[in-house]
Amino acid sequence: MPVLKPCELQRERDQASAYVSFDRCAFSSQFFCKEGCLRFSETRIKKIQINQGAYIFRAGDPFANLYILKKGFAKLDFSFEDGNSQIARFQIPGDYFGLVGAASGVHRFSNIALTDVELCTIDRHTLGELITTNPQLNQMIQDGMSARMASMAEHFYYLSCYSVERRLAKFLVDFQDRLKAVNLDQSSINLPMSREDLKSYLGTTSESLSRAFSSLAGSGCFNVQNRLISDIDFELLQKVADNEN
């Protein structure tokens, strides 16, 4: 059985790339070191690289691994029978995914790399041993999955009740909060997703999304040039998201 063991704390945090800062990811640093590897012995963690635009896994593929995003950005995509699709989540460094397919044995969503990505994978058998021998890790996974499902349910509520401007404002605030949690926040956001992807996630049209960007920029929330969002007033964006005049 794989057994967790202590790992000396990294002291070069400020000098290390922010993309490998896992001390504030969904799992705690008790189980992960800064490089995104599990702290246990006698078990190998497979590290893989996926090129931009390639599938990490497809809907219908058998569940085989837990994936931990070490570097880059990805998207979770659900395809409908009529050929249309809906992006359900954008994933950032520190996110883990792939467990939704564990219950049925196959993935219902597809995961696609938005940029070149680096991942750590844990095969299902090793994962089963880990959560059996480490109840705290098992509880953390369950809590993380519950929070993720609640977040996705909340997002679909916003799609039905919020204006496009409010959806976009909330997305930018939430995205910055997520980046901040893994030490990737900056004064400007260079969006890793295309307008087409963002349109799908926000459940709108290209024209409506363009108007929302223009409206928020005109209100002083930010400046926008292609994917670069700069001079962001997050307090004002939060007020827009909360529908405060």
Characterization of the model:
This protein has 245 residues and is α+β, with helices and mostly antiparallel strands. The chain folds into two domains: 43-158, Sandwich (Jelly Rolls), CATH 2.60.120; 163-241, Arc Repressor Mutant, subunit A (Orthogonal Bundle). The chain is built from six helices and 13 strands. The strands form four sheets. A four-stranded antiparallel β-sheet has the order 3-10-5-8. It has a four-stranded antiparallel β-sheet with strand order 4-9-6-7. A three-stranded antiparallel β-sheet has the order 11-13-12, with helices on one face. The longest helix has 27 residues, at 135-161. The termini are far apart.
Task: Describe this structure in a few short sentences.
It contains six helices and 13 strands.
Which superfamily, in CATH terms, is the homologous superfamily of the largest domain? Jelly Rolls
Low-confidence sequence ranges: 1-30
State the CATH architecture of the largest domain: Sandwich
**What's the pLDDT, averaged over the residues?**
80
Number of helices: 6
Percent range for β-strand residues: 15-25%
Write down the overall geometry: globular
Query: N-to-C SSE series?
Result: EEEEEEEEEEHHHEHHEEH
Number of domains: 2
